[in-house]
Specification:
By secondary structure, this protein is mainly beta. It is built from no helices and 21 strands. Strands 1-7-6-3-4 form a five-stranded mixed sheet, with no helix packed on it.
């Protein structure tokens, strides 16, 4: 039969003093086949045809009995890459399911997805605050749970600079030291690379992170709050901007 969870198969014979021999690949069992001594464990994502026959010395062997077991399972819940969070400008989100050959469906309006929802075919570009939900299906498998995440997009200003950045990195921060907020100007020379801007305290703990994709000069404002929305204490912090090819670090001070 078809099952969606691991199974233990018990084989018995009403005739005393018999040995039960069995196969799991559909072939005819013989006296040299595996000897049944304990329930057979069938794991998920497996497909077996078990055949068994009982033997007793000086007795005619029993007829062969056969049973097919199709064990599936529950589809893994999709995951978001990168995870839900706050991003600069826009973010491209990939949907991943660790169950092979599963079909992922998603929504961008906060509604619960089903098989009639758009099917995932490639990275999803998010340019505004969006609640992304995803679910995965596979024939004969139990449907996955629903993955849900809020992607908050921070608008990025585009200063009217007539000159392109000479380098990729952190160009300026002001005011520095700062009390309530600081403006960070970055320059991207390469054509639209994905970048991360992380803010660390002196213990090396990341207190905030932005991820974006842009080219040219970009300005944005940090209000001195950590990822949970709490004001960070006064002290020295480090900005670390990283693209696939460049890394830039700058010290800032909160008074």
């Amino acid at each position: 039969g078809h099952y969606t969870s691991p199974q233990y198969v018990v084989i018995s014979c009403p005739t005393f003093y018999t040995q039960i021999r069995y196969t799991m690949n559909g072939t005819e069992p013989s006296q040299t086949s595996s000897l049944y001594t304990a329930p057979i464990n069938l794991s998920t994502n497996s497909n077996y045809t078990i055949k068994a026959k009982a033997y007793r010395t000086d007795w005619i062997p029993s007829p062969t009995v056969s049973a097919h077991f199709y064990i599936t399972g529950t589809v893994s819940t999709p995951i978001f890459d990168p995870p839900a969070g706050m991003y600069m400008g826009e973010v491209q989100v990939s949907l991943i399911c660790h169950t092979s050959n599963a079909n992922i469906h998603y929504t961008l309006d906060g509604s619960t997805p089903d098989e009639s929802s758009p099917q995932y075919a490639g990275p999803i570009t998010i340019t505004e605050d969006t609640t992304l939900k995803a679910i995965a299906f596979k024939t004969d498998w139990t449907t996955s749970g629903v993955a849900e995440g809020l992607f908050e997009i921070i608008p990025v200003s585009n200063p009217d600079d007539t000159q392109a950045p000479l380098f990729t990195g952190i160009h300026n921060v002001y005011p520095n030291p700062f009390a309530d907020a600081i403006t960070i100007r970055i320059g991207i020379k390469e054509p639209n690379p994905q970048y991360q801007l992380n803010i660390y305290n002196l213990k090396g703990q990341r207190v905030h992170q932005y991820v974006g994709k842009a080219k040219g000069f970009q300005d944005y404002r940090w209000d001195g709050r950590d990822a949970s929305g709490k004001k960070v204490p006064a002290g020295i912090y480090f900005l670390r901007m990283q693209t696939p090819t460049q890394t830039s670090i700058k010290k800032i001070v909160r008074q």
